[in-house]
Design a protein that fits this description.
alpha/beta, binds zinc ion, globular, five-stranded parallel sheet
Length: 445
């Protein structure tokens, strides 16, 4: 919270939104950190892969300072009793689209032309809130059609104006003209506004130019589209889009700005090209073959496979709310991706948790855990993809991904043991982000 002196009414409004702990610290006008103590009945140590019993977590402002079984709770600390629950690190979804406005599976390009960027950003506010309240305290948001709305959302959350997860954003899709990240489906003689074609680039130097602009705009990573897409008119998930030369230029340019790159790729060759170019993760990785799997392991590339959202695509198809060409692109791909996920687990590939949130309604991302278990993971492995692995993929393992001293106080709790039944994560009872409580169900159901 901003610590500068505020006029009375502003201070009151501000404090009404803050926790009691923050209120007392602010009202006293001191810089003394407030201490919160969480009593955890079970605590999942995702690094060690084991559950600890009856732990106390001490939090000073927004950071975890100590964890232990017999820790003394300092006088004046706010005590949160989660002794009947399982406590684990805040979850991280590495593939979301929170800032494209209200979910709309219609594929109608007109929906993007009927709304201003301001409307899109404000429509995205509930997406962020639902995501946080479902236990995801951090997201890697991997692209928007109307450029830079994700930066607006990220920054509004970071300022505390609206509730939402900590966001790491891409700013736009870096895509070939008419490709997987382009807004397609309009008549060819329509000139789209600048922010609906911001990331289109053909040739290595255009790719570099787009990435330079995005870096200057303050993005956290770069999203490139290596192959065609499912939910895109005139694109084809089987096709390669960017060339090797363009992909290499993208990664080199992004790295020059200290930015990691994730590549959308369904197609077998598009996946391999992205890995060889040096991306941090391949998104979807639908038609990855054995050679691609071996390359991913060799290069330490994460596979970020959204194996739940097929359920939502099929449901939209049943209801006729998704265009016929999208359904056609999708045929058989869902099962192929799930089978390849199973192979990737068996092969020991690095896997992160990404759901393509926005394909499904917001707030249901945790449903993917059960599918990960169904397709070969233990519950612990599935949880690790959304905690320690995800933090590592983001390059922020020092502050995210586990409950450890020095890390951000991003902590959730569930009523039952997710190592016994991972679907416990579909009903998160307690959410703390950055030391602030956003959700707290009082009694076990
Ligand atoms: Zn996506």
């Amino acid at each position: 919270m901003n610590t500068r002196v505020l006029p009375g009414i502003v201070l009151w409004l501000c404090c009404a939104l803050a926790t009691a702990a923050q209120v007392s610290a602010t009202a006293a006008g001191t810089a003394t950190p407030h201490v919160t103590a969480i009593k955890a009945g079970r605590l999942l140590d995702v690094d060690a892969g084991k559950e600890l019993r009856n732990q106390v977590i001490l939090i000073s402002d927004n950071r975890i300072t100590a964890i232990g079984e017999a820790l003394a709770i300092p006088a004046g600390a706010t005590v949160i009793d989660l002794s009947a629950m399982t406590v684990l690190p805040g979850l991280i979804d590495c593939h979301t689209h929170l800032a494209d406005g209200a979910r709309d599976p219609s594929g109608d390009p007109l929906t993007y032309l009927k709304r201003t960027a301001a409307e899109v950003a404000l429509e995205s506010v509930p997406n962020a809130r639902l995501t946080l309240e479902s236990g995801f305290t951090t997201v890697r948001d991997v692209g928007v059609y109307r450029a830079l709305t994700d930066i607006a959302l990220r920054d509004a959350i970071a300022r505390g104006d609206i509730p939402g997860p900590r966001m790491y954003v891409a700013g736009a899709y870096v895509t070939i003209t008419g490709g997987a990240g382009a807004l397609t489906g309009a008549s060819p003689d329509i000139q789209l506004p600048w922010d609906l074609r911001y990331g289109q680039a053909d040739g290595p130097w255009q790719v570099r130019a787009v990435i330079r602009k995005l870096a200057n705009n303050g993005v956290d990573h770069i999203k490139i589209l290596s192959s065609g897409a499912v939910l895109e008119h005139g694109s084809n998930p089987n096709s390669q889009e960017f060339t090797m030369e363009e992909l290499r230029a993208a990664v080199e340019e992004a790295h020059a700005f200290g930015l990691r790159v994730e590549a959308h790729a369904h197609a077998t060759q598009g996946i391999k090209n992205a890995i060889l170019a040096g991306v941090a993760s391949v998104e979807h990785a639908t038609m990855i073959d054995d050679e691609g799997m071996a390359l991913a392991k060799q290069h330490g590339t994460y596979l970020d496979m959204d194996i739940y959202d097929e359920e939502c695509i099929e449901e939209d198809a049943r209801h006729g709310t998704i265009p016929a060409d999208f359904v056609q692109h999708d045929a058989a791909l869902g099962q192929i991706q799930r089978d390849n996920f199973h192979k990737a687990v068996a092969a020991g590939a690095k896997l992160s948790f990404g759901t393509d949130a926005g394909v499904c309604p917001y707030g249901v991302a945790a449903r993917q855990f059960a599918f990960m278990v169904q397709y070969g993971m233990t519950p612990l492995q599935a949880i690790q993809t959304a905690t320690k692995n995800a933090a590592d993929l983001l390059g922020h393992g020092d502050v995210l991904g586990s409950i450890k001293p020095g890390k951000y106080a991003d902590i959730i709790a569930v009523q039952t043991d997710p190592l016994q039944d991972v679907r416990a994560l579909e009903n998160v009872s307690f959410v703390m982000k950055d030391g602030k409580v956003y959700k707290q169900a009082d009694a076990p159901r």
